[in-house]
């Protein structure tokens, strides 16, 4: 272990640092006696959270007291009361801010003197009314008066009030620090802090009354919201309040309103304004109706009206903890009786629970990433998680069950446990974690009395913190870290489970641990977004009942899965898919093990099941792939080389029989890509290229297999055969659909064939093409199909299926207009003999990259496009939303790029590519298109491409248009990387992007001005 | 789950107490035509809960085939009895929001467009307030029979017409408006014969758009009862002033008027100046929405103090935007007046684009151009060009071309409404262009 000078951990009672001893000596000199330098004091010092700080603090206090000429009194008190001395050292070792207070007010040190174990916690002085009296007395107000008014005013009153508050706070602090098990008194401490805050606000109001003109025209009630309202306040945090006023006697309403506003404004200053004696904390009235835009004070009827007519959902949630804390008690009580019932009507409103849950997600998103780990309050598994879970369940079930309508988090947890809405063991675990984290939070605040919930990152500070958390046993920062991790992990785990575990039990009809009815379970499922709650209960029961291994594992993982499905676009569908998958796999041990042991795999599975019917379908045929789900590496696309090698191996081993294994390989790799796509393991723009490569490798290998079978038996001369990809496959831009547009070409390797041999060859190559098409086609295989379509060949369906290279040459020689070669811009040989592929490219290059395109040809091309726009669009289709042929859709962008290629590729070799975006970028490079224009076209094209893929992934079928169905749109948006809830935004952005692309297209392609 | 809120309960109770027989559910099509579906009280609870389904394909602008099923959800805060239905058969009405069957706000709902735009202002801390001065003509009949319409009187600006229809009419109209909870600021006879103006007291944008819809229905109703016909057509009489709907606008931040600045020129704050600058810069591209008919441009381009040029002024009665005289002691009354819009506009969409243009000016910090002090009508074309004063579009055709290029309008209306509006208005222009008018026959019939 490393040691440093003044290292507090070093001193296990063995002694104090030289510095500390020197400080004690100096203090004794000031006191004129040996009170502090002895071994007993050294022992106390070494037990303090920070012994050096403790010694310095004691010296500072002694100096200040001595300056006041009270040295003798202090000496006597210290000598007479070991408890006094021990408290002073404890406080000085943990709270610099408290020592600052004692240095400002040396007299106040004597509030630490007392005979009982506790100075204030648990005593009569801690009663709310006693606190109120003490604070009122400090400013000379009569606590029993009808309209209590301070006799002191101004700066003097403010200082007196704040000082008395801090005297009491010092007592609370030292009691808390002295507790051997601070978690056991945390509720008393937070209640006391809340009552202290309420008392000081009430006493502050008496000062404001004394200073405010017309103050007696208005009654004012201060309502505490949030933690102060619930009596679970921290040492330092904003105290949220709202102000309710009523005119007194005959006072006109506007006079009363003005007086009440002035009272409230002055009260805020008295508590939070800067003065010689520092401010206490922020008194914040921002939670009032209409927030900061609304008036500071309102009448009861106005509150009533606001919550009845105007308030947002989250504002009702805030009411849950509201209670009158200061000012006019009967007005406060009336406020409570009127407003509190709104909490329970609000939770019944449509969308209430969803909105509350969404808010939680946003809060977590807002924490800076690097701080989440150190956040005791907002981080995952932190205080907020416990508070939030408790509140959410309270809102879901409190409407029907008033037993859980209590404000304080710890009491809510207890009530939820007792009523069976969560397992009582879970409730106890959450409460324990909550207590622990509250203690840590308090210890973070005590040193500087600052509002913070962020653990320090400095080791020495962590050490001091740990020593102030633990009074006994191991006081190291290591224990603190371990305890904290254990608690927050438990909370995180419970957070996923507590909502759903009782549902499982209700579904199974068990009531061993909880007592939730099936009805309450369905209400909870509905609150979390399940629509068919009866069917869902059925699935849950089917998955979890019985004693099979599968049922045991399902009971374990389902609570979390149900939660994840509920965040998906269609929770019911996700659950159903899980049931199907699990039923087909429940015999596999590895599956159950994976499900049980890998949180990542289960999470990924939930996402795949709820977002992709396509991937789910493939997964059901290839369940072994579920094993990839917890491994990012295995979701990455395999390299082309390794896939080609695997295919070659299959060909070598199976020869003509290799088609089926090759197709299995293809299915498997498409599934891998789809999973990587859904789970964001692969960049979206890379997907079309990956899919195209998989298809190419498959067609190439299948062609070899087919030829291996057919060539052996046939009496034909040697020949080359190649497959030319056209359209989007040619551009390597395909999605998850099966179409492959191709042309077939062959070339005999023997010169001067006689016509008979040539005829045999012609018949044979046609057989090869047909065999290839059927080998990859739909029937007779469980694997994905590739639907080979040669309709784009010369003369279409009436032309020969396979042409010789020379036949292509003769055919193309008949073309007179360059525009006729447009389709060839996307032609790319993908399979078969390498030399023939090159020869084919050499044949078509001069055609598709002509030196010059006559105006007549351009006009032809534009006219053709214009006619297509009016004729090709399916009847009734909305031209804005049609992905391929719509306004600014794929075809608009592609034709624009292809026109540039036809006209300029001869001069600019960069344009000689089948890739749409490649050519577009080259056009910018060559100065043929503006950067902005190109970006507009690229955005629309990429969105359309991604959209098509996304819908295919979700529904398992192709989409011709931007989906009209909201669920489908939402799923597409998520698959395209939008945040949840962005369906409408995707639609707007797609329509906007394509509208802008159309404008560019009209300028660049049609050259409309 | 779903439970009645207080407002809904209030409506149900009123319907019962007042023995209301029918409730009309009102909504607007994309062009601002009022649409109405009547339900009986027994259906009301269901209307609040699940809404009332209807076939949207029969309504202008809702006609996406796959979205023909739509749902009306009445907004209980807009409930009011229709005074002209009398006591014999009490009838109530509410404005509705339009939803898709799966419960999402319909993209084609004009009211939703305004709600969205006001929410955007709300995110920046602003509430949008409006008060319009609505002009209309009273004619003797709604049946024209091929002849020009005949005004009910021959009076002029602020004239008092003894025993005239106009006075009775205005009194009844104002009383009826007040009975429906729509406060009237002012009413008087306007410059044209039979032309009247009624100014509504300011309200937030959405409430005011609802009020304008109610106003037009109500004025037509009262006119019919008095045996005359009310027309909001932008320019019904060739040689008389058109029907403008000068619109005063202000933004509030909480309680305080964001346009007010005691030290600013004309007490106009920087926020106010930027809002005006935004309106000016985008005036041409929003004009297809604020002036949506072929006929609208005949109002703008035939004098009578209609604002043809894009400029602002203080006293200048020909400017597109006027910064009115500030009434001392009333900071809340600081506002600006947009004089381009006419009485036939769809108030939901027009308020949306005007607000969006002003907000754009604030967001981008546009500089306000110099004030136009002269009557810009009297300047020569070159003088105006030299001063950088542009003209509003001269026709619907030109306005549509400007709108087509406007990202601001597309973003504000949403892509659906934007596209529908453009297509609908293109058709209108094409139909208009196909007309052979009296004018042409008169001039060219006998030409060589």
UniProtKB/TrEMBL annotation, chain B:
GO MF entries: ligase activity
Source organism superkingdom: Bacteria
Domain GS catalytic: 110-448
Entry-linked SUPFAM superfamilies: Glutamine synthetase, N-terminal domain (SSF54368), Glutamine synthetase/guanido kinase (SSF55931)
Keyword 4Fe-4S among record annotations: no
Catalysed reactions, as listed in the record: L-glutamate + NH4(+) + ATP = L-glutamine + ADP + phosphate + H(+)
GS beta-grasp domain location: 18-103
Keywords annotated in UniProt: ATP-binding, Ligase, Magnesium, Metal-binding, Nucleotide-binding
Cofactors, names only: Mg(2+)
Keyword Ligase: yes
EC number: 6.3.1.2
PROSITE patterns: GLNA_1, GLNA_ATP, GS_BETA_GRASP, GS_CATALYTIC
Family stated for the protein in its record: Belongs to the glutamine synthetase family.
PANTHER family named in the record: GAMMA-GLUTAMYLPOLYAMINE SYNTHETASE GLNA2 (PTHR43785:SF11), GAMMA-GLUTAMYLPUTRESCINE SYNTHETASE (PTHR43785)
Entry protein name: Glutamine synthetase
């Amino acid at each position: 272990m490393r040691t440093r000078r003044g290292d507090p951990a070093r001193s296990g009672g063995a002694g104090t640092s030289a510095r500390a001893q020197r400080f004690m000596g100096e203090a004794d000199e000031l006191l004129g006696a040996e009170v502090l330098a002895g071994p007993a004091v050294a022992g106390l010092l070494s037990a303090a959270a920070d012994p050096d700080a403790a010694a310095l603090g004691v010296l500072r206090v002694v100096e200040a007291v001595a300056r006041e000429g009270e040295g003798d009194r202090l000496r006597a008190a210290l000598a007479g009361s070991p408890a006094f001395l021990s408290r002073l050292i404890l406080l000085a070792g943990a709270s610099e801010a408290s020592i600052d207070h004692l240095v400002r007010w040396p007299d106040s040190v004597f509030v630490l003197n007392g005979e009982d174990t506790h100075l204030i916690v648990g005593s009569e002085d801690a009663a709310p009314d006693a606190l109120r009296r003490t604070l009122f007395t400090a400013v000379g107000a009569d606590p029993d008066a009808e309209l209590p008014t301070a006799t002191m005013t101004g700066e003097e009153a403010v200082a007196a009030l704040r000082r008395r508050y801090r005297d009491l706070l010092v007592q609370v602090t030292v009691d808390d620090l002295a507790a051997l098990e601070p978690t056991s008194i945390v509720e008393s401490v937070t209640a006391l802090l809340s009552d202290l805050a309420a008392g000081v606000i009430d006493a502050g109001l008496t000062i404001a009354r004394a200073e405010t003109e017309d103050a007696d025209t208005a009654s004012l009630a201060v309502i505490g919201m949030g933690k102060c309202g619930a009596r679970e306040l921290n040492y330092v945090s904003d105290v949220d309040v709202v102000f309710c006023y009523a005119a007194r006697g005959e006072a006109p309403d506007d006079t009363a309103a003005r007086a009440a506003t002035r009272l409230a404004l002055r009260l805020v200053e008295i508590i939070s304004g800067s003065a010689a004696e520092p401010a206490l904390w922020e008194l914040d009235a921002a939670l009032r109706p209409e927030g900061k835009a609304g008036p500071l004070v309102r009448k009861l009827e106005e509150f009533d009206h606001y919550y009845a007519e105007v308030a947002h959902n989250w504002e009702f949630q805030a009411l849950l903890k509201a209670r009158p804390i200061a000012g006019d008690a009967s007005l406060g009580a009336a406020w409570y009786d009127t407003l509190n019932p709104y909490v329970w009507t609000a939770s019944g409103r449509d969308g209430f629970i969803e909105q509350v849950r969404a808010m939680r997600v946003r809060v977590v998103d807002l924490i800076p990433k690097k701080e989440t780990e150190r956040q005791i309050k907002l981080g995952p598994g932190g205080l907020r998680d416990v508070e939030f879970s408790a509140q959410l369940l309270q809102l879901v079930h409190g409407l029907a069950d008033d037993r859980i309508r209590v404000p304080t988090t710890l009491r809510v947890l207890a009530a939820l446990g007792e009523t069976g809405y969560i397992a009582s063991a879970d409730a106890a675990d959450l409460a324990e974690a909550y207590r622990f984290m509250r203690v840590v939070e308090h210890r973070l605040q005590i040193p500087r009395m600052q509002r913070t919930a962020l653990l320090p990152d400095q080791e020495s500070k962590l050490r001091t913190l740990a020593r102030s958390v633990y009074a006994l046993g191991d006081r190291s920062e290591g224990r603190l870290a371990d305890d904290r991790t254990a608690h927050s992990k438990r909370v995180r785990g419970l957070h996923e489970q507590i909502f759903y575990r009782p549902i499982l039990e209700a579904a199974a009809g068990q009531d061993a641990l909880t007592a939730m009815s099936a009805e309450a379970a369905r209400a909870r499922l509905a609150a979390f977004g399940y629509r068919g709650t009866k069917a869902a209960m059925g699935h849950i029961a089917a998955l979890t009942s019985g004693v099979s291994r599968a049922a045991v594992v399902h009971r374990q993982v389902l609570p979390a899965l149900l939660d994840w499905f509920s965040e998906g676009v269609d929770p019911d569908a996700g659950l159903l898919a899980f049931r199907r998958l699990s039923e087909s796999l429940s015999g596999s041990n590895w599956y159950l093990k994976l499900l049980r042991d890998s949180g990542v795999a289960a999470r990924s599975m939930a996402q795949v099941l709820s977002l992709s019917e396509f991937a789910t379908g493939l997964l059901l045929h290839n369940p072994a792939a579920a094993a990839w789900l917890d491994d990012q590496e295995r979701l990455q696309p395999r390299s082309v080389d390794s896939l080609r090698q695997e295919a070659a191996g299959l060909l070598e081993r199976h020869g003509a029989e290799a088609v089926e294994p090759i197709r299995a390989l293809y299915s498997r790799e498409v599934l891998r890509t789809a999973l990587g796509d859904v789970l964001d393991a692969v960049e979206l723009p890379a997907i079309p290229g990956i899919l195209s490569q998989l298809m190419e490798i498959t067609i190439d290998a299948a062609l070899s297999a087919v030829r291996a079978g057919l060539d052996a038996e046939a009496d034909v001369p040697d020949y080359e055969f190649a497959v030319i990809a056209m359209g989007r496959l040619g551009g390597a831009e395909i999605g998850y659909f099966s179409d492959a547009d191709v042309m077939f070409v062959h070339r005999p390797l023997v010169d001067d064939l006689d016509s008979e041999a040539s005829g045999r060859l012609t018949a044979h190559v046609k057989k090869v093409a047909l065999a290839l098409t059927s080998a990859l086609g739909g029937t007779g295989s469980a694997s994905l199909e590739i639907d080979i379509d040669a309709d784009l060949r010369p003369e279409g369906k009436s032309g020969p299926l396979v042409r010789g290279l020379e036949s292509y040459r003769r055919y193309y020689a008949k073309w007179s207009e360059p525009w006729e070669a447009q389709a060839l811009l996307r032609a790319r040989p993908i399979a078969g003999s390498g030399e023939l592929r090159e020869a084919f490219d050499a044949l078509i290059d001069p055609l598709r990259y002509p030196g010059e395109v006559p105006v007549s040809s351009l006009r032809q091309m534009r006219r053709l496009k214009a006619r297509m726009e009016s004729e090709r669009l399916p009847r009734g289709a909305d031209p804005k939303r049609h992905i391929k042929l719509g306004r600014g859709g794929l075809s608009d962008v592609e034709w624009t790029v292809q026109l540039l290629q036809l006209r300029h590729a001869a001069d600019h070799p960069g344009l000689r590519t089948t890739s749409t975006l490649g050519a577009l970028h080259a056009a910018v490079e060559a100065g043929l298109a503006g950067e902005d224009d190109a970006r507009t076209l690229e955005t629309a094209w990429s969105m359309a491409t991604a959209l098509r893929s996304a819908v295919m992934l979700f529904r398992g079928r192709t989409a011709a248009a931007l989906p009209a169905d909201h669920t489908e749109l939402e799923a597409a948006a998520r698959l395209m990387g939008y945040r949840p809830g962005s369906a409408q935004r995707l639609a707007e952005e797609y329509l906007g992007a394509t509208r802008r692309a159309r404008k560019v297209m009209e300028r660049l392609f049609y050259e409309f001005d | 789950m779903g439970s009645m809120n207080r407002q809904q309960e209030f409506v149900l109770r009123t319907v019962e107490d007042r023995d209301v027989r029918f409730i009309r559910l009102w909504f607007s099509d994309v062009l601002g035509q009022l649409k109405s579906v009547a339900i009986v009280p027994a259906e009301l609870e269901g209307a609040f809960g699940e809404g009332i389904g209807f076939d949207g394909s029969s309504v202008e602008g809702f006609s996406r085939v796959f979205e023909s099923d739509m749902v009306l959800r009445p907004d209980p805060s807009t409930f009011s009895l229709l005074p002209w239905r009398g006591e014999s058969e009490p009838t109530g009405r509410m404005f509705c929001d339009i939803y898709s069957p799966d419960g999402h706000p319909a993209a084609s709902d004009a009211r939703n467009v305004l709600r969205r735009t006001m929410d955007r202002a709300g995110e920046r801390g602003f509430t949008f307030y409006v008060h319009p001065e609505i002009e209309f003509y009273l004619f003797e009949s709604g049946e024209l029979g091929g002849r020009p319409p005949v005004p009910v009187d021959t009076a002029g600006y602020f004239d008092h017409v003894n025993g005239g229809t106009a006075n009775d009419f205005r009194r009844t109209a104002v009383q009826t408006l007040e009975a429906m909870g729509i406060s009237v600021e002012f009413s008087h006879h306007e410059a044209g014969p039979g032309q009247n103006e009624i100014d509504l007291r300011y309200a937030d944008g959405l409430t005011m758009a609802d009020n304008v819809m109610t106003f037009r229905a109500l004025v037509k109703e009262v006119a019919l009862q008095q045996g005359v016909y009310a027309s909001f057509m932008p320019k019904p009489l060739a040689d008389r002033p058109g029907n403008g709907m000068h619109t005063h606008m202000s933004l509030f931040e909480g309680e305080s008027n964001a346009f007010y600045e005691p030290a600013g020129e004309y007490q106009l704050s920087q926020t106010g100046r930027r809002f005006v600058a935004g309106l000016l810069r985008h005036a041409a591209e929003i004009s297809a929405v604020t002036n949506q008919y072929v006929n609208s441009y005949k109002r703008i381009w035939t004098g009578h103090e209609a604002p043809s040029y894009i400029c602002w002024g203080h006293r200048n009665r020909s400017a597109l935007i006027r910064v009115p005289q500030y009434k001392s002691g009333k900071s809340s009354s600081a506002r600006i007046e947009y004089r381009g819009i006419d009485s036939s506009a769809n108030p939901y969409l027009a308020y949306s684009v005007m607000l969006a243009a002003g907000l754009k000016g604030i967001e981008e910090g546009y500089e306000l151009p110099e004030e136009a002090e002269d009557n810009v009508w009297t300047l020569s074309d070159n003088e105006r060009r030299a001063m950088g004063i542009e003209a509003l579009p001269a026709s619907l055709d030109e306005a549509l071309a400007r709108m087509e290029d406007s990202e601001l309008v597309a973003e504000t209306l949403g892509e659906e409404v934007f596209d529908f509006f453009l297509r609908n208005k293109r058709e209108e222009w094409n139909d208009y262009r196909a007309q052979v008018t009296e004018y042409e026959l008169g001039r060219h019939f006998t030409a060589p």
